[in-house]
Amino acid sequence: MWSEPFFLRALLAGVGIAVVAAPIGCFVVWRRMAYFGESLAHSGLLGVAIGLFFGIDTTIGVVATCLAMAVMLATLQRQRILANDTLLGILSHGSLALGLIVASIMTWVRFDLTALLFGDILTVSEADIAWVWLGGAAALGLMAWLWRDLLAATVHEELAQAEGVPVRLVEIGFMLLIAFTIAIAMKIVGILLMTALLIIPAAAARKVAPSPEVMVLIAALNGVAAVVGGLMLSAQWDTPSGPSIVIMACLIFVITLVVPAVLRLLRPA
Amino acid sequence: MLKTPDKTLISTKGVCLTLNGREILDGIDISVDEGEIVTIVGPNGAGKSTLVRVLLGLVPQSGGTIERARDLRVGYVPQRFAVPDTLPLTVDRLLSLTMRCKPAEREQVLEETGIGHLRASPMADLSGGELQRALIAKALLRRPNLLVLDEPVQGVDFIGEARLYRMIGDIRRDRGCGILMVSHDLHMVMAESDRVVCLNSHVCCEGKPSSVQADPEFARMFGPEAARVMAIYSHDHDHTHEGGHVCPTDGHDHKH
Hints:
The structure holds two protein chains of two kinds.
Chain A: H1 5-30, H2 34-42, H3 44-53, H4 58-79, H5 84-105, H6 113-118, H7 126-155, H8 157-162, H9 167-189, H10 194-206, H11 212-237, H12 241-266
Helix pairs in contact in A: 1-7, 1-9, 1-10, 1-11, 2-4, 2-5, 2-10, 3-4, 3-5, 4-5, 4-9, 7-9, 10-11, 10-12, 11-12
Chain B: E1 8-19, E2 22-28, E3 31-33, E4 37-41, H1 48-56, E5 63-68, E6 74-77, H2 91-95, H3 103-112, H4 128-140, E7 146-150, H5 158-175, E8 178-183, E9 188-190, E10 195-200, E11 202-207, H6 216-229, E12 230-232, E13 239-242, E14 245-248
Parallel strand pairs in B: 4-8, 4-10, 6-7, 7-8
Antiparallel strand pairs in B: 1-2, 1-3, 1-5, 9-12, 10-11, 13-14
């Protein structure tokens, strides 16, 4: 499998995505935004459809749609009409349904729905790799620039604001990062499993990390391991790439739970 | 305490705040001078924390003016503070969150607040009192001339409360900064408070707290130290609140 060009392309893209997803995934975990990320990911399908409809790059279509979704969510959340999870549920599934309908109406474009929903390593092109690595580098740069302020706002929003952190601006920057990560990762993991790649490696890093920075580092390692293992599984058994990567991430998470427990049991009293 | 002529750090005139048609703050005049301890007391929902947010500039007021000294530097300790349990953060890291500072500076403020030994501890392991001290240390790192403490003794037992109050008194003495404190307890306020402001949407009354709580029963229960630092602030109310209006009475008690 290592000599197959499609496998190497998927690997290159996947590893890049895992690294970019690590710091963003950690913030999603810390800020309890898993469902928020899920909702943005679900709107990704609509983004692909819009991109194809207007004949623009689908990555740009996805970023734009996710951002619009993020702004709408943030605005509605501030109105406090509904509980946040209810609101997220409505927008998440509403946008997914709309995406599916728009995709089905556009009969002149052949949609590979399974690939969009669950990821397909065969579809990763050189252009996708360029998006992942160049865009990923830009995203990591923005992340590094926002890091201190976003961390302070995550620990305590009001205190950060009182100490001069431009909280609103920093949060908008963070939403941009989530939207972008979803757009570049969609090809590999698919829309439905996107959030898993953000939060599972971060969750697995949580118990062992002594500081936020180390947690990001461990999350990146977990993510890379999940991508490599998942893609091998996918190539070997012809399983869809997204679910294979997610299963590997879950396996790593379970190991981080079980191993310390076993070590405690084995330690002589 | 001998005082040099006081400089006003922050003062408000007729500050009002209306949120969703509800009047939260109504014509607040309040000021804090350098080296002065001002305690705001009042029942739940009286608008104490909201007033603090308005003073800090976090919430814009609907009316009135706020004057801040040109060199005002505020150190703020918020009422609720919980680090997400998924976020690994040590006390030392908390201090440098929004400020770049030398390790020696961090060590110094931790010594000042009496938790030098907890520097490497995860935030999740701190007790209520230790958390407050860590937050005060973080606020001190900014070299404030006004320290704003929103319920600094919450989640702290009585003895810890007395110690915290003594520490706050020491900070004022050593640094000469003004301190604005919020307390939900109508009776227990720091004896060293220069002024106590009773708030219930508007300023009900303000004045000096009785200097020392001299009740021997109090001293017996909480130790002479507690008796030394705490006081019961007794005040006579000359009005009640009926339907949002202030009605004069003959020394009737508040139903807080």
